[in-house]
UniProtKB/TrEMBL annotation:
<dbReference type="InterPro" id="IPR018958">
    <property type="entry name" value="Knr4/Smi1-like_dom"/>
</dbReference>
<protein>
    <submittedName>
        <fullName>Cell wall assembly protein</fullName>
    </submittedName>
</protein>
<feature type="domain" description="Knr4/Smi1-like">
    <location>
        <begin position="34"/>
        <end position="167"/>
    </location>
</feature>
<dbReference type="InterPro" id="IPR037883">
    <property type="entry name" value="Knr4/Smi1-like_sf"/>
</dbReference>
<dbReference type="Pfam" id="PF09346">
    <property type="entry name" value="SMI1_KNR4"/>
</dbReference>
């Protein structure tokens, strides 16, 4: 995953279409310092979940990641800032709950953890499994997307971000 994140950083900075800090431009890196195991464990204890392995690996590479295009993709938060969507945007869950045909999505939104997009127009969510050792779901969620936009995992998502950047 680190190679993909590095390639996203280098490609976005080289294109020069977005604003980055001097440090990001000089280091050609849109990430932060890696999270410590203690920071990851604190987040897990605070949320009462064991986060998926690929997300923990991401945090050990970079504790947060600036989006190269804030209008299309959300910026990833530090481990200390991730939270349940219901605590960040309860109104969104309420809206989805009102439409009974979309109740299954609303139930998943109510359980989801926002790991990217705090204060932005779109979110990247981790949806915990209902059963122990079940599969986590990975969703990009935005007002202009009709429902959830699922991914096979974080690496799959970042490959899509890189492909989008290359095609821009």
């Amino acid at each position: 995953m680190k190679k993909i994140l590095k390639k996203i950083s280098e490609t976005a900075i080289k294109q020069g279409e977005f604003s980055f800090t001097t440090e990001q431009t000089e280091t050609k890196w849109l990430g932060n310092q890696p999270a410590t195991l203690a920071e990851i464990q604190e987040a897990e204890v605070r949320l009462g979940v064991t986060l998926p392995t690929d997300y923990k690996e991401f945090l050990l590479i970079t504790n947060g990641f600036t989006t190269p295009n804030e209008h299309v993709d959300p910026s990833f938060s530090k481990a200390s800032d991730i939270a349940f969507l219901k605590d960040v945007d309860p109104q969104l869950i309420e809206i989805w709950t009102e439409n009974h045909e979309l109740l299954e999505v609303a139930i998943k939104l109510a359980r989801s953890i926002i790991i990217a997009g705090l204060g932005e127009e779109q979110y990247f969510l981790l949806v915990p499994p209902i059963i122990e050792n079940g599969e986590w779901e990975y969703w990009k969620f935005a007002s202009w997307i009709p429902g959830e936009d699922p991914y096979e995992g974080l690496e799959n998502y970042f490959i899509n971000v890189l492909d989008f950047l290359k095609s821009a």
